[in-house]
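Hi R.,

Here's the chain you asked about this morning:
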Amino acid sequence: MEIFDVNYNKLSDKRSMELFSLRKSVFKDRLDWAVNCFNGMEFDEYDHTNTTYLLGVYDNTVICSLLLINIKNPNMITGTFYRYFNQINIPEGNYIESSRFFVDKERVQNMSCSQYPVSTMLFLAALNYSRKFDYEGILTIVSHAMFIIMKRSGWHLTVLEKGLSEKNEKVYLLRLPVDTENQNILINYINRKKILLKNKDWPLSFTLTDSF
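And the predicted structure, written out as tokens:
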């Protein structure tokens, strides 16, 4: 399994159709979020030239992804999600926003990957990407379910604000550190699942094994 970054301008027609179709199936069909869909795909004003996608690919098939935007550019925290909170104070510094995080459960199950911590592997990818490009940390807004998943990984997250979504469900604005300590925490969590991380450098490559 490989996780790598692709800028919006370099996303091929085939990959963009695959990615945006998967996002529609996850965020609209499964989660029923208030998202923009067209021709069976989900995309909006944050899919643009300043956007980077992390793609997790197994057997040449995308099984997970997230979207990254420098916090100094228009982003979902200060845009779409702003109304979910009484106030949002963006910390000073060089931060990157992460959004549209998903793991396609159907593909993961069909490809016999459900026993692997794909979410944590994608967390590590976001952390390593941020370190490579000298960001101080990651800012993200997550649901309560994702908040629990992230805490279980051991990542030393900080809750900056709490709010309610359009469905009256809890959401959290988080700051995620990208230091060596937290990198090792995520790596150790993944290693416990008998997965071989080939190196710490970006992009990431994992060897999935059946030794449990």
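The helical segments are 13-30, 105-110, 118-132, 144-152, 180-191.

Let me know if you need anything else.
M.
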